[in-house]
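Subgroup meeting minutes
Present: P.N., E.W., G.H.
Scribe: E.W.

1. P.N. recapped why we're keeping a running log of single-chain structure predictions: easier to compare across weeks, and new members can see raw inputs and outputs side by side.
2. G.H. added today's entry (377 aa).
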Amino acid sequence: MKNRKIFCILLASILTVSAVSCGNTEENSSVSEESSQAEEVTSTEETAEEPTEEVTEEEAETQAETETQAEDSSGGNSLYGSTAVFTDFVKTKGEVSPPLWKVTDPETNNELYIMGTIHVLPSDFAGLPENIKDIYENSDGIAVEYNVNEITSDIRLLAKYQQMFLYEDGSLVSDHISQETYDRAKAYFESLGLYQDVLDQFSAGYWLNQIQSIMILRLENLSSEGVDSQFISLAENDGKEVVNIETLEIQAGAIDGYSDELVDYLISELLDEIDEIDECAENLAELYDLWAVGDVDSMLDSENEEIEELPRDLQDDYIAYNDIMLTDRNQGMAEKASEFLKEGKNYLFMVGSAHYSGDRGVDDLLAEMGYTVEKIS
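Output recorded in log:
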């Protein structure tokens, strides 16, 4: 399965975003994602201009109808092709030790706990260790990439988010990818009963994101409610603050930052590998196992090898996209953590574990800023 790790890393990195556009698959059973939690292929008959209130509500109703059509009592897996049992590939059973650091400002002694999360969990997940629960209990709130509950509970915000995937110049997805790739992707959506004409108005990155999300729906014994989602619900129930680290625009940009040539290639490759569901489960389980033992630096170890498998003329495009997906966002996340430290905000700070991987992770950037960063077992 060529480039399977790239697809897995991309999927794991944007799953939270996917959750926004798709909602919780266990509750909504929709088809569309991140990554993850796939859901609807939404409907929108508007341009990138400001929508009228009537169109916004109509769009949301159409979207809800699409979700209903995709719904399946078993969680949706059987609707989209052969399945794989995610837990068959997970090696870490029982207790986990997620990546966790204590960051201290040497000037003020203010402290901030930062944690790496994962956006999918095995259905038999035993829960987080007591030290993380204690940190949460003693916090004033949590800081997450983006509170997906805000979007799924607000029709207008959801419509605004969906609009971010429309081409600003009014072009169609077929203007940005090859005719062959477009025809194949359209036929795939049609085979699942998910294609609507309005989908052509959405970006190629969004199309790729939807196909990746469908892969998630085909994994059994997989909970699309990741660690961050669980904490959001817990904090809201406990009356604690839930603070967004990123803007909605940054989250959308993480899906839509590909060059046309790269996204064309990735869609085509993913369709070639669409039935390699066991390898999808195996690679996602490998990321979970690394998270479960706190080994974030190994998450991107194979990325350079995977990049070398790309056509040479696309390797720079992928590196540029990786800057959008991880490098640039890491910097913004570190700056936000620094802001909390300076203000003495007692938050449990959590972002996807890939944002701590490598030597330019959030933890490394905070250390460069002069903070004391201690890894906690």
